[in-house]
């Protein structure tokens, strides 16, 4: 449904957003009647609230994407660092351009491509295109530290989760022993060489777009992007094969979906076998990572999503699969 923009974006000051949009329009030579600005809410985002904004021009119409930062989302990442990452990725020819910023969010170039569906991730042709794009993404030389942030970030989120959740949830999620679990995983996964590269870290289907004509893949939304083990990024992506955030139960991921085994159909060698093993182990890390994200989000955001239910499932899967995956 398309509606007028004024008053629809809860938690923001419309004048700040409108000022940014009018300034952009002026830069492009557009004459804007604010009563004709239209907004469409784009579903699927779980950290921010995202809108497609359009306004008529002399010959056609102009479209941009507006991202409203979710309440409490600054807990998860540094917004200034995210903006620097966003701009650096853009200079490498990836993703949309940053058009404007305002206190509660930003305006981005609108990518005229189709956002993937949950089903698309498991399409062999599309999956091959995604793999090629991930390899390209992992080859980016980004400014700043090249050290993996995964373990530090998890510990930071664990501290925050402990400070926010109830005693009941702290006990249910075993928060008192999670530091030991993180240490164990870090030690086991650090025993052998890990390929560290610039990773997206959140490659769910809603963050991947495809141009159906050119078969070009675009990765978007870099809030969690950082240097990390490539195997972690692959594990995260494969875990997302099991998710459908547009279903009647978006917080439930179908973990019976086989998302690792298909790699085993390829010719084996030592390097491939090690990567498969690393990816399987990093699925455990992913369960803790996004389980903590769910606990924190469930206590700070008003977005309509069952974050706590999501966290319960991720931690349940962690404890279920740990004995099998970490067996020596």
Automatic annotation (TrEMBL):
GO terms for molecular function: choline kinase activity; ethanolamine kinase activity. GO terms for cellular component: cytoplasm. GO terms for biological process: phosphatidylethanolamine biosynthetic process. InterPro entries: Kinase-like_dom_sf. Pfam families: Choline_kinase. SUPFAM superfamilies: Protein kinase-like (PK-like). Belongs to the choline/ethanolamine kinase family. This is Choline kinase N-terminal domain-containing protein. The lineage of its organism: Eukaryota, Viridiplantae, Streptophyta, Embryophyta, Tracheophyta.
